[in-house]
Design a protein that fits this description.
Blueprint lengths: L1 E2 L5 H4 L2 H8 L3 E4 H6 L1 H6 L2 E3 L5 E3 L2 E7 L8 E7 L5 E5 L7 H6 L5 E5 L4 H6 L4 H8 L7 H11 L6 E5 L8 H12 L7 E4 L9 E3 L2 H4 L4 E3 L2
Parallel strand pairs: 1-2, 2-3, 7-8, 8-9, 9-10
Antiparallel strand pairs: 4-5, 5-6, 6-7, 11-12
Length: 221
């Protein structure tokens, strides 16, 4: 299965064709489907923010987020046989209280760290685009991503994956260092990785074998 966070082409392009080729089930909100005509024709399954659903062993919680799209969501997936929780949080301008609550006790956090504030302010983008990126319906900065991660950090969290890095207004080094500083006074002892736009990341696993048995929840970006 593939779950769409929103309709912007850098997140949805090619989904219908890939789903047809490989037999994926596609899950998207009504708003996302309305902006992606091919999804409606393909027969995507409709999900609603706040209403959980199931994909195999995974319990999925779609959470409404703040972004300039039609009904965008973040996802929190829990492996029912393991208890492992993974969250996928991008694109969004602010982290609401409801989203922060949903991130409680996640083991794997994939979060947008789109831009460095100073690089954005001094960068080449036109003023209107800078305002859009920094707005409440834009994208999270490195600092904002760090604050969010620190709020939900715990000793069992194994991975923080920084996603959706701007190639113009950020660097993997800046994003990783900002997250490291944000988490240094928390119980977090796991790994911090900046995901690249054009290169697959390694598959990662969070294992709670001691408490839940041998199964794992794995993801590949």
């Amino acid at each position: 299965a593939v779950m769409l966070t929103h309709e912007h082409t850098d997140h949805s392009k090619g989904v219908a064709q890939c789903a047809t080729k490989w037999g994926w089930n596609v899950f998207a909100t009504t708003g996302t489907q309305s902006e992606c005509g091919l999804l409606e024709e393909f027969g995507a399954q409709t999900i609603t923010p706040g209403l959980d659903f199931q994909i195999g062993d995974l319990h999925i919680q779609p959470v409404r987020i703040s972004h300039d799209a039609s009904e965008p969501v973040a996802f929190v997936a829990t492996g029912q046989s393991t208890g492992v929780r993974a969250a996928f949080v991008y694109d969004l301008g602010i982290v609401t209280q409801s989203l922060q609550r949903a991130l409680d006790r996640v083991d794997i956090l994939v979060i947008e760290a789109n831009h460095d504030g100073e690089m954005l302010r001094n960068g080449p983008y036109p003023a209107m685009l800078k305002r859009r990126i920094a707005s409440r319906e834009g994208h999270l900065s490195n600092r904002e991503a760090g604050v969010t991660a620190a709020e939900c950090a715990h000793g069992g969290m194994s991975h923080v994956i920084l996603a959706h890095l701007s190639e113009t207004n950020n660097t993997p080094q800046k994003a990783t260092e900002a997250m490291r500083l944000a988490l240094r006074r928390t119980p977090f002892k796991g790994s911090i990785v900046a995901a690249m736009q054009n290169t697959p990341s390694n598959t990662i696993s969070a294992d709670r074998a001691a408490a839940f048995g041998p199964a794992q929840l794995s993801l590949a970006l």
